[in-house]
Amino acid sequence: MNTLEIRKQNSPLLQDVLKLMYIIRDIHNSASLLGWDQETYMPTGSVNARASQLVTLETIAHRLLTSKKARILAEKIEQYNGGSNSFEKGIYRTFLKEYNLAVKLPQKFVEKFTKARTYAIESWKKARQMNDYNIFEKDFDYLTKLKIEQANYYGFSENPYDALIDLYEPGMTYSFLLPYFEEIKEETRNILDDALRVSSLINDKFLYDYYDNDIQFTMARQICEKMGFDFYYGRLDKSIHPFTTSFSRKDVRLTVRVIERDLRSSIFSAIHEAGHGLYEQNISHEYYRTFLEEGSSYGIHESQSLLWEKIIARTLEFSNWFLPILKEYFPSLLKNVTSIDFFKAINKISKSFMRTEADELTYNLHIIMRFEIENDLLNQKIRVRDIPEIWNQKFYDYFSLRPVSLREGCLQDIHWAQGSFGYFPTYTLGKIYSAMIWKKLQEDIPDVLNNIENGNFILIKNWLRENIHQYGKLYEPQVLMKMITGKNFDVGDYNQYIRKKISMLSI
Description:
Neurolysin, domain 3
């Protein structure tokens, strides 16, 4: 019996849960559409109206999820002894989790937070543009207080940060992640000097010539298509901060950042976001409009984008395939560049101020630094007003460099303006997951590198769909990873992968 038949024939309880879930999911997706518009096309003067619209939608969704009807359904689920199929179990598990989180938050808090986030995004944009932290500080401080309040509503046993990390990566805590992050930090420092020495001999200047904005955007779209992103159910736009938003598997929006004097940005932001987009588009159609129609976790989602962007697209085989295409767009600028030149240039290790432009090795240092700041903020060990100074000092401690502007310092990311505290750790989790997945993918498809060199990505896309994408949120991340790799959480595959990659820079 397939899932569609289960929906028709199974218990009245399942039918009632699904009916409520469809409505809530539609409302959340409508709110997400307004959020996407705010970050792409919305006029600056529309922020007040947009805040009201988002508050209305989020309030309605919260009321539905905390209603008497939802409470009765939750009680019935907890008493129910059935649910022999995975779909039904997954629906009940995700409904209960969302219900239990929602009932802990007062309605007034949801309204305050939604409005505060909407205004913070706009003040962050302006502060970033004007290089003036004062423009954002008040909204940032208010959001931080609200996130501490939210953590207290949810409850935690050790650390308020745990309550927020769990929203993005179920089961993860600060104390669990800390030793793994410390191990990665130590491993990075052990090999960084040699990597920088080798990289100092690599010429990557051609990446920073002038590359036409519109031509780059056209090229970015072609890359997404080649990876298998379906533009019948998706689109690509430009934004300050590249991101992916999905309103359903039938409507997935990607954005890229195009920088005229940094060719890497459009290429790799497109590949990264298309990795997210492929995940969303290939979730089983049977999960449409349910809470299962999204990724297992943010860490698993990041593993998909990072697998494509940091691993597949930075192989020598990818350079052999992609450079000739790139030369068709920019023949004069890349005339004398070879595949080896391109491979070394895009893998060059260097200390970068920008997280999104960071190389594979130093990227985790950017994340761990943010992880530490977030933890200190939420435990009220530091103040929002001191963040620029704290950021610059931490950056110097990690990279021996000091940002000269807020755009390349504490205002480079949108996450805090969105209130997304706890999101940053999932990037490094995604790196760890992606290395574990890549090792397994190579075992299952021994000639995967040959396929990459020939521009044949369908085998990779199909493997990811069969092993990861189709399941959506049916399985929690650690269960899914054990299913895929047969192993528990481990940084060994990542450490092995990154050392091998660094050694290849000497070829």
